[in-house]
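pls design
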């Protein structure tokens, strides 16, 4: 494992790992918060707290694969995620290629995940905000499956609906895999991560 605990004497932050979601307690177990769930799993494994308020986010510092990493849960609400991400990017002068975004994906079943090097927003408002405000689509990302929208549901209602207990368990298992994928991506093994975990 590449994980080491919290602060280190190595240089400044080199990577951002950003989980997307909505900050209010009422959104905690909703599909749109799969990114937050994954950051929570990562912080548990790293034994770090993501509770410092900075860059319009809750943040925590960690070292993964010898690299200084800032874990982020934007507090801006999903549709304005880019405000938080670009503020941290600009402060640390981090290129998009070193910003790993973890987000929910309705095209994947719960428990599935898909890793991408870069690409369009895919209709995801959080990703859309990040791409728009940064002027780049070169962000590596981990898409966490939250299940496709039933025909009778409105999309906004679906992504803000809660996981069932069995779905929450499947998401938790996928989040564990995503933690390992983050390690691989930070240590320049994104191809291996994609081969291992793309559903």
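designed seq:
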């Amino acid at each position: 494992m590449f994980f080491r605990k919290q602060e280190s004497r190595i240089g400044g932050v080199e990577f951002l790992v950003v989980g997307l979601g909505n900050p209010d307690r009422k959104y905690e177990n909703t599909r749109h918060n799969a990114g937050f769930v994954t950051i929570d799993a990562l912080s548990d494994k790293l034994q770090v707290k993501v509770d410092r308020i900075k860059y319009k986010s809750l943040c925590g510092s960690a070292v993964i694969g010898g690299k200084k990493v800032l874990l982020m849960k934007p507090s801006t609400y999903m549709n304005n995620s880019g405000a938080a991400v670009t503020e941290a990017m600009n402060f640390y002068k981090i290129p998009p290629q070193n910003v790993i975004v973890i987000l929910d994906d309705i095209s994947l079943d719960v428990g599935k995940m898909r890793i991408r090097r870069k690409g369009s927003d895919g209709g995801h408002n959080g990703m859309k905000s990040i791409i728009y405000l940064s002027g780049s689509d070169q962000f590596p990302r981990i898409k966490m499956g939250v299940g496709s929208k039933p025909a009778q549901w409105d999309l906004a209602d679906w992504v803000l609906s809660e996981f069932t207990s069995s779905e929450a368990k499947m998401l938790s298992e996928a989040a564990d895999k995503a933690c390992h994928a983050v390690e691989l991506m930070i240590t320049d093994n994104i191809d291996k991560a994609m081969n291992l975990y793309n559903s």
